[in-house]
Each structure stands twice: as structure tokens, then as C-alpha cells.
Automatic annotation (TrEMBL):
This is ATP-binding cassette domain-containing protein. The keyword DNA repair does not apply. GO terms for molecular function: ABC-type transporter activity; ATP binding; ATP hydrolysis activity. It comes from Endobacterium cereale. It is found in: Cell membrane. Residues 4-229 form the ABC transporter domain. Belongs to the ABC transporter superfamily. The keyword Transmembrane helix applies. Keywords: ATP-binding, Membrane, Nucleotide-binding, Transmembrane, Transmembrane helix. It comes from the Bacteria. GO terms for cellular component: plasma membrane.
């Protein structure tokens, strides 16, 4: 489940300035489609329309053929997991941060999710700079470790659809590769929409869509796009 379709989508934050100008594409269930393109092209806007932070003004966005406007926010959020560029953590343990929003999750489930994200060994630690209740200094988390917390949250949630919005963009190259392999595991068998600004980071996508100024400029596999130049 979880096939996504954008059908001739038009969107503008300001009516004078169209951002998406008739964008159509599909992400078949279980596949990965990457949207790449320069900053300001409208890539993140696409993820916001899927998550329904905003509504399309013309055209439609559907999940399994159903218009997202006909789905409740609650059920939309239950089927979509999002790993954003920067993950904001609460002043509490890593385990608390992973479990956030899913109070029913057991300690074992939290630990299993943390293990997949490779932060299982320090889930009782605190995020960067935070003080424990007894005044003990918290563990400093790097950008990569924070992304691992976001990945563990998503694993615990287990949604059929995943949005990775510049999830590795803020990381150095080595960390980016490490986080990318964790993301590859999590996106396997999920319908995944990847937002990225560089073609080199989305080599494994089933299809890559190049967005320029709100329009699809090119599309194809990584190999095909490289051959075209
Ligand atoms: P990208 O992800 O490709 O960098 P975005 O989808 O974030 O692009 O933004 C596309 C354009 O829409 C940009 O020019 C940006 O300044 C503008 N924009 C983004 N969010 C808003 C907003 N909330 N209100 C007004 N303009 C916005
Ligand atoms: P849940 O995981 O319980 O469904 P939410 O639906 O509130 O939680 O958020 C899902 C993901 O979307 C979270 O990882 C969160 O960081 C991200 N998110 C929530 N609100 C926003 C927002 N306004 N802008 C960008 N990302 C957001």
C-alpha cells in the first residue's frame, strides 16, 4: 500500500508567484522516487503538499487513489513518516525522544528501533547540552546521531510511506554515507519520496525527477540522467 500520485499539481504561497506549475508524477507502492533540483525549485513544497501542511490549488495529490484532502490529518500522519533535515530533540533521554508520540510502544520496541538506527547502546543518554534531573551533564549528540534518532522514531512508527526531506544534507560526507545506509534499510519496501539537492545522493532511487522553477525538467534513472549529462 501507499502509492502516491501528484496529478497536474499547481501551488503558490503567494497568488502572484506560482511555485509548482503543473507537476505530475507517481511513486508506485514500495518504490523510491527522488526529487532533485536547485534551491527554491519547490522540492520541499511537494513534501508539504503530501503531508498536507498546505493544500494544492489545482490538480490533486492522492494516496492509493484517494485524494489527501479526503483523509483526516490523523490518518495521514499515521501512514507517513518524515525524516527532516534537522531533528529537534526534547530535553529528555534518547529513548523518550524515540518513543515521542507513541506512548504505547514497549521498551523492547524502542530498543529494537534504536538498534536498527544504531543508537541502541546509548538510549538512556540525554541529547546535546541538556541537564539531567539530577544535574548530570547530557551526552552531546552529533548531527548524524540526531538523524539516527529521527530514523529510530520512523522505524518505531512503521509507516508505509516515508518522506526524506534533505535528511542527510546537513551532514559531512562520511556521516552522510553512514546515515544513507541506515535510510536505505528503513526505506526498503516503503513508498519513499526523497527530497535532495544533489543527484549524487540519490543513486539508488527507482526514478529521479529534476525540478526546476516549479516544473519537471527531466526524469529518469540515475544512470540515464548521467548519460544525458
Ligand atoms: P526547495 O525545497 O526546492 O528549496 P521550497 O519548496 O522550499 O524549495 O520553496 C520554493 C519557493 O517557495 C522558494 O522561493 C521559497 O522561498 C518559497 N516558499 C517556501 N515556503 C514558503 C512559505 N511558507 N511562504 C512563502 N513562500 C515560501
Ligand atoms: P508523528 O510522528 O507522531 O506522526 P507528526 O505527524 O507531528 O508526528 O510529525 C511527523 C514528522 O514530521 C516529525 O518527524 C516532525 O519532525 C515532522 N514535522 C512535524 N511538523 C512539521 C513542520 N511544521 N514542518 C516540518 N516538519 C514537521
Amino acid at each position: 500500500p501507499g502509492a502516491i500520485a501528484f496529478n497536474n499539481v499547481h501551488f503558490a504561497y503567494d497568488p502572484e508567484r506560482p511555485i509548482l506549475k503543473g507537476v505530475s508524477f507517481e511513486v508506485p507502492a514500495g518504490k523510491t522516487v527522488a526529487i532533485v533540483g536547485p534551491s527554491g525549485a519547490g522540492k520541499s513544497t511537494i513534501s508539504r503538499l503530501l503531508y498536507r501542511f498546505y493544500d494544492v490549488q489545482q490538480g490533486s495529490v492522492t494516496i492509493d487513489g484517494q485524494d489527501v484532502r479526503e483523509v483526516t490529518q490523523q490518518s495521514l500522519r499515521s501512514v507517513i513518516g518524515m525524516v527532516p533535515q534537522d531533528t529537534v530533540l526534547f530535553n529528555d533521554t534518547i529513548a523518550y525522544n524515540i518513543r515521542y508520540g507513541r506512548p504505547a510502544a514497549s521498551a523492547e520496541e524502542v530498543k529494537a528501533a534504536a538498534d536498527i538506527a544504531q543508537i541502541g547502546t546509548f538510549i538512556t543518554h540525554l541529547p546535546e547540552g541538556f541537564e539531567t534531573k539530577v544535574g548530570e551533564r547530557g551526552l552531546k549528540l552529533s548531527g548524524g546521531e540526531k538523524q539516527r534518532v529521527a530514523i529510530a522514531r520512523t522505524v518505531l512508527k512503521g509507516p508505509p510511506i516515508l518522506i526524506l526531506d534533505e535528511a542527510t544534507s546537513a551532514l559531512d560526507t562520511t556521516t552522510e554515507h553512514e546515515i544513507q545506509s541506515a535510510l536505505d534499510i528503513v526505506s526498503k519496501n516503503r513508498t519513499t519520496l526523497v527530497i535532495a539537492h544533489r543527484l549524487s545522493t540519490v543513486i539508488n532511487a527507482d526514478e529521479i525527477i529534476v525540478l526546476r522553477a516549479g516544473e519537471i525538467a527531466e526524469r529518469g534513472t540515475h544512470t540515464a540522467l548521467i548519460e544525458q549529462g
